[in-house]
Amino acid sequence: MNWKPLLSRRMTTAAAQALIALGILISLSSYVLAQERGWSEPMLLSVADSWSWFPDIAVDLGGRIHVVYDGNRRVSQDVSEDGSVPAVMYTVSQGGEWGEPNDLHLGGRGNIFRSAIAVDRFGNLHMVCKRGGAGSELDYRQASVETAYSAQGWNRHVLDKGVIYMSDVAVDSDNVIHVVYEKWVPFEEPFITEGGREISQLSDIFCRRSVDGGRTWSIPVNLSQTPRVGDYRVQLKVDANDMIHVTWDEGFDRWALYGEPRVGIYINSTDGGQTWSSPVQFYMPEHTNAQMAAASDNRGNVLAVWRSTSIDRVYYAWSTDGGLSWSEAQPIPAFYTRSYNETMFDAYDMMADSAGNIHLVAVGRSRLPVGRGEDVPLGVYHLVWDGERWLAPEPVYVYEAERGFPEYPKLVISAGNQLHVVWFVRDQQFGGAHTTYRIFYSYLEAEAPLQFPEPTPTLTPTPAPTVTSTPLPTVTPWPTVNPTTSGMPSGVYTDIDDTLRLLASVLPIGVLLFLLAAVRLGWFRKLLSR
What we know:
The chain is mainly β. It has helices at residues 13-32, 498-521, 523-529, and strands at 43-44, 50-59, 65-74, 88-94, 97-98, 102-103, 116-119, 124-131, 137-144, 155-161, 164-171, 177-192, 198-210, 221-222, 231-238, 244-253, 258-269, 280-282, 289-296, 302-308, 313-319, 330-336, 349-352, 358-364, 378-385, 394-399, 405-414, 418-426, 437-445. The strands form 7 sheets. Strands 2, 3, 4, 5 and 6 form a 5-stranded antiparallel beta sheet that branches. Strands 1-29-28-27 form a 4-stranded antiparallel beta sheet.
């Protein structure tokens, strides 16, 4: 597949804006018109009988939807002797049509690469992932949105070496690229567990940044500073005000399989990642927290969400001062988690729309089983926090008996109100080598204003990045949450008719395109000359 560039470098700003608006309108109509209400029918993005999991998603200014995910080995195929499988797959949608997934040829052993992507305003995709059987290095790759389909279109740079697992990437409005990742840090002296195992290193959370489009990188900075304690499931968000929000789980180490989830950690930066706040610990209700996530409403408020591994509930806390203080932890109403024993890999994801509502996507249940024999189906759910209360959970898709086990939903919001979600589904909860893992996508238009992006600046080629040295970490003091008060959410959410919202969103676009065409064709000048 060979996508033609959406924008010419010589186009005027007005023409560029018109084409961007038209591209967004075409993309929206292909999904909105295909659905009567609510979320679109899930679309299979991966090969039907493949081993495909851990997706991530980004949307560029032209409305193209980019998805990467791990592996594409056919279930009928055996893994080679060295453990090599196709690594990171890539697919893109333009105008509602998805391209055939293509292998980006990362190589290396294993089938878990935990890729993450982001797109900048210049039309470049940025991807990070681990590479090697035990995550021997952290890969950073970059490609333009026009060349990303080809493996040869990506530049590659090794950001760090060592035992690495999860990572994440985001780009701020100044085009600064931010990366966070988990990496093993060795101890001066190993210790022996109660079971007789020797533990010599556990993971900490590191960050790096590039201010020149990926050419050079800052030295890695250790954000967690937790010797003899593992850190896991790191996430990174940059809000509309360029405030950086980072979360992770503390207590368990993925590679060492040592420890238990204990607390969720939140940390932020208000100066582009040059300095960081003191980490905040979320330990309520039973010091068994995991799947930590956070998002800003882009108005100075921050929402933190996590689950307890000992109680099948999702909890939240709300900060109205940029993460300095937090409300008392409360369970999200009418939503229940899966058992933590079912998977250690699941995660939550959140993002705010143009109205400041924070959208959460999570796998869970509408209620708990009444007895041991009852099986309440899992589903991918969409929940909305409006700053004061939670709206009723809305299913993206519910997997009835024998339909599969969803996991790891990832969310991105484009144009202010266009929600895009991807996730993977296992056909067996505890399957073996022949378990099928599939990637799905769904779309929803939220009740928030449609926002047109700024025109894309002139694209400039990016030279291959260079390696910089690694510094010694410094110690950061640890505070704990200072609970205040929080009211329980109430009320039920009622949808507005989709047809009216569609007409309201399309009308300004039509007027804008008409005026731009009139200016370009000189209609107004001809009228005035008369």
